[in-house]
Amino acid sequence: MNKLIIDSQHLTVKDVLKVSKNKAKVEIGENAYQKIDKARKIIEDIVEKGYPIYGINTGFGKFCNVQISKKELKMLQENLIMSHSCGVGDALPEDIVRGIMILRMNNLSKGYSGISRETFEQIQNLLNHEITPFIPEQGSLGASGDLAPLAHMSLALMGLGEVFYKGQKISAKKALEEEGLKPIHLKEKEGLALINGTQVMTSIGVHAIADAIKLAKFSDLSAAMTTEALNGITDAFYEEIHEIRNQTGQIKTAENMRNILKDSKNTTKQAEIRVQDAYTIRCIPQIHGASKDAINYVSDILNKEINAVTDNPLIFPENGKVISGGNFHGQPVALAMDFLGIAVSEIANVSERRIERLVNPQLSGMPAFLSNNGGLNSGYMIPQYVAASLVSENKVLAHPASVDSIPSSANQEDHVSMGTIAARKAKQIVENVKKVIAIEFLAAAQAIDIKDQKDNLSSTNRFIYDKIREKVTFMEKDRIIHNDIIEMEKLLNDDKFFEEIENKIDLKI
């Protein structure tokens, strides 16, 4: 059934993607309602008694010591959303924004934020009616959470700002009217409950890690196809070599390579053609494996953050306490996203070097740039340039964002994470790596045809080779290779293709 129930339970990356990408309907469970109601009652009691509590009846940031009169408390929350809606840049993609919304719902469902049922349900309404708030991608420091982008999300709940609806960018008010929905009016503490959190960096991270996990597996497959094209030596994947190194990702990658190549007639043993392969073939388990270990670490951090409570102040219904803390600080995600960017960059680095080995006649023993009529035709000369360009761009993007901090709010918020910048960079690196892997697959398939090796391919590689050739034919003479790369990238994005591979072979990560 294509739905997700939010009931204060543990969500996974797959759950988030079910809503963000596949547009599953969202339902709210009774357990979530009970927790929300308990926390809301505490907020209402505080308002009635007038105790000064941050964000409920005080100003924000440096204004935390300014107490707000009871009659102005609702205006305080609406002012917060409007004043903080100052993001800039292009719109975040629809799937990222839907991910933000379901993550925020999960956060609020835990019952530590003091949101009302009506406001909570309005996020559900937007998701189920496919009204996607316009959120500019730039402007978050990653502490106190993702304030500016989450404020733009919150505008739409109030019928303010702009949204994407039925393929158009229109006013939120008009979209709500079209679906028979009414704007909400924020109550005490609700504005802060909506924007204090790490859901923007986490949503970007969730989408990046899902692609990174797939790419880690595809990188083993593209490397295996290149290994066949270059008659690579399989002794380097011998199980005991990797067992005595004791690195998990390395052990799993070597196992993947053995399984992919087990029935290949193109690979060789040491000293049959050469004694050793270059590192980009021989050290595939060591290089890919290290990236996989990093990817698994990042995945663990994100799975924790998906289910984290990141609001401030936090309400503890069991004892009635309302305590200011710092769960909104994005440092755990910031460091993880920087690590992901570095780790995935390395997958492209080694892939590009394998592409070079395929197109360089001094290294491959094949016609230069995999063209049978070189000179008149340039063949795969420039795709290698493109891969090199992407790899170089990744090196710039992989510079850590989390090592930077700029004090804000008159030095009240004097250390920030830059986690959303780190997440955005990691996502771009992942997209770049996907293109490099696509080029390696194309070059490897071209090399296999030049050497007439397709009938000697392993069963796994033959399946992938045939799928490639359904989309991209052998390049007899020069053509617009951009189109080939686009087709190969579409194949890598095809969930059905990935599932078919997974059904054929159990690739470890």
UniProtKB/TrEMBL annotation:
Species annotation:
Geotoga petraea
Q: Does the keyword NADP apply?
A: no
> Could you give a single Gene Ontology term from the biological process aspect?
L-histidine catabolic process to glutamate and formamide
Which keywords appear in this protein's UniProt record, sorted alphabetically?
A: Cytoplasm, Histidine metabolism, Lyase
Q: What is this protein called?
A: Histidine ammonia-lyase
Q: Where is this cross-link: 5-imidazolinone (Ala-Gly)?
A: 143-145
Molecular function as annotated in GO: histidine ammonia-lyase activity
Family matches, as Pfam families: Lyase_aromatic (PF00221)
Post-translational modification, briefly? Contains an active site 4-methylidene-imidazol-5-one (MIO), which is formed autocatalytically by cyclization and dehydration of residues Ala-Ser-Gly.
